[in-house]
Fold this sequence. Notes:
Number of strands: 16
Structural class: mainly beta
Radius of gyration: 20 Å
Largest sheet: 13 strands, mixed
Shape: globular
Number of domains: 2
Order of helices and strands: EEHHEEEEHEHEEEEEEEEE
Amino acid sequence: MNRSTKGAIVAALLAATGAGGAVASRASADRPHNVSSRADERDSDDDLPDVCERRGRADAKIATAKLIIEFNATDDDIGVHGAFDDHGWSELCVFDPSGRPLAVFDPRGRLDDLTMAGVFFESREPPEAEWSFDDLVAAFPEGRYRVKARNFEGKYLTGSARFTHAVPAAPEIVAPVIAEEPEAPGTPIATDDVVVAWEPVTQTINGAAVSISGYQVIVTKEEHEDPHGFSKPTYDVHVGPDATSLSVPADFFESGEVYELEVLALERSGNQTISVGFFVTA
C-alpha cells in the first residue's frame, strides 16, 4: 500500500475502532509480551452478533475473503491486511484457526439499514524492535480463517481466508537511482527516460523457495494538495512474475517534482513485500 495514502480506508484489526457510532469493530489475538494488548478485555463472546454464533449450513459463499501479510523492507515494519467483500452484508465475523473471534464488523444505525458491500483493513505496522516477524508468526498462525456474515436479505454467508507465513524477500530496485528520503532525492532524471527495474525475487525472507505471482510498481507524486480527496497523481501497475522492468509514461510526470517509488513482490497466497525510494525529475 502506498505510504502516502495509508489510512484512507482502514478498519483496525489489532485495535478496536468505531466511526461515529456507525460501525463497531472488535479484534483479538494472542500477543507477544512486548506488544501491549487489550485482547483479554474483548475475548468474551457475550456481545457478538448472532451471526457469529450461528451453526448450520450457509446460504451462499462470501465473494471475497483475504488475509495477508505486508512487509515493508525499507521501513522494516510488518502487519496484517484483510479484505472481505460481498453484496450488502449487515454483520461479519472473522475467526482464527482455533475458532476464536478475530474481528467483528457490526454496522449500526443508518449504515446497518443500508448495509455494507465490503471492508478493507490494515493493521498497525510497528517497527521491527516492537513487533517482529516472529511476533506476527506467534500471534497469527497459518491456516484457514473462517468468515461468517449475514446479508440484507437475511441470508447467511460463509467462507475462509487462507493465511500463510510465506513472505517474499525484498525486491532490489536497480533503476532509477533512488534515495532513502524525499528531502534528498539525488540527481534529477529525464521524464522521458524513466524505466523502473528490479532484481527477481527468488526466496522468502527466511531463505525458502517462493512462488511469486507478480510484481506491483507504484509511482506517486510526493507533494500534492488535496487534503479531503484522493487525487494525488499515482501510477500503479501490476506485471507478471517474469517481469523485471517497467517504463513509466513521460506524460505522468511533472518537471522538478519528487516522486516516491515502490516495488512490491507478490507471493501466491497474497503476501507482499515492498521496497521504497525517492527520485526527482529534471
